[in-house]
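Prompt: For my understanding, could you write out one protein's sequence and backbone structure tokens?
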Amino acid sequence: MKKNTIFLALCLFILLLGGCGTNRTEPSEPPSAADNTAGITEQDAMKAALEHAGLKENDLTSRHIEKDSENGKEIYEIEFYAGSSEYEYEIDAATGKILGWEEDAD
């Protein structure tokens, strides 16, 4: 009788442990293009800004690029100097579209 009770308790314990797994589910459909945050690279964003400004990389005296989020949208904030001018750009990190820009000439 004691062996049956131990066997039954052991079986119950194993059944309980079997239910203690991760509660992970696989997505039912692949992520959409809107979920893809890869978009463009920093180099692509800088190239778009330089083309818009009519400059080349070797015209710059300094530059700074930072990826940020604005209104739920990933953007690149780019700042660079060429000659006596400072340029600031905001570029959509998904599409490469220039969202805004400013040139400040000294």
Remarks:
- The first helix runs from residue 2 to 18.
